[in-house]
Amino acid sequence: MKIGLVLEGGAMRGMYTAGVLDVFLDKSIEVDCIIGVSAGALFGVNFKSRQPGRTLRYNIKYAKDNRYMGFKSLIRTGNIVNKEFCFDEIPNKLDVFDFDTFNKTKEEFYAVVTNVDTGAPEYIHIKDLNKSMEYLRASGSMPFVSKLVEINGKKYLDGGISDSIPVEKMIDMGYDKIIVVLTRPKNYTKKKTDQNVAKLFYKKYPKLVDTINTRYLRYNNELKNIERLEKNNDIFVIRPSKFVKIKRLEKDENKIKEMYNLGKNDAINSLEKLKEYLSK
Fold first, then answer.
1. Full-prediction pTM beyond 0.90?
2. Mind listing the pLDDT tens digit for each residue in 7-17?
3. pLDDT digits (tens, 9 = 90+) for 187-246
4. Contacting residues for 199 by C-beta, under 8 A, at least 6 apart
5. What is the pLDDT of residue 153?
6. How far is CA 25 from the centre of its chain?
7. Mapped to the 3 state alphabet, what secondary structure does 234-249 carry?
8. C-alpha–C-alpha distance, residues 280 and 277, integer Å
């Protein structure tokens, strides 16, 4: 039996996912493959590197640091999430990431990115994170507030633009049991956004514009599909049991902890049903 784990993004809503994954590590919930989108990829790497608590720790410590994320970083660097600080200083010096363990542990790890020219998702198999950090950064590069990330001649942005919850991809890859961690509570629906904003920002990339402007349709269809699969017991879903008002770039320590703790509590409360699902 092959078990897949799908991690939705959502910027600092991803602290919910961090809480869930720390419970999985504590309770020895094992999977064979992880597909992370945006914050799901950025925070999900700490599951594969076996570093519980790391996501919460560095977000609490640096959330209010101007070097980490925010409009000062956007003005100075063109990226609302600071490239050098987040993808070099923190993992290599300030809160060291265990690259060796990540590279050795058994789970296959994929980060979803959006190809700017095609508007389509790409699922990047990350085997050596040292060599693939730019793909991880691309997966979390939010549109409008991030520079395009160019890798090997291709331009990328946030994977959530094109495939926010890649359950169908995981099914296509042949996984028998699939755990899905969402960062929105049940009954959430995404609203249509101003169609002119993407046209203004990305007029050179018409396919990306179309992907951005139709994202709400795909997202809501993905949720309907997830609800159907969950009802049929084909997948197992963990989602926030209540709404937490948290900003995408939240700096309030209490809000960050609240989202993280909700993830932990929901995961703990789901454990018995999860084990039952995985055992059948």
1. yes
2. 999 999 999 99
3. 999 999 999 999 999 999 999 999 999 999 999 999 999 999 999 999 999 999 999 999
4. 209
5. 97
6. 18
7. CCEEECCCCCCCCCCC
8. 6
CA distance 85 to 64: 13
The answer to whether 38 touches 160, Cβ cutoff 8 Å, is yes
- CA 215, CA 211: separation in Å to the nearest integer? 6
Dump the DSSP string for 180-219: EE-SS-TT--PPPPPHHHHHHH-TT-HHHHHHHHTHHHHH
**Considering only CA atoms, which of 208, 213, 41 is closest in space to residue 139?**
41
Q: In the structure encoding, which two tokens stand for residue 122, read together? A: 């790409």
With H, G, I as helix, E, B as strand and everything else as coil, classify residue 257.
helix
Q: How high is the pLDDT of residue 192?
A: 95
3 state DSSP class of 222: helix
Task: Compute the distance between CA of residue 56 and CA of residue 204 in angstroms, rounded to an integer.
Answer: 38
pLDDT in tens, 32-43: 999 999 999 999
198 is written with which tokens? 């993407």
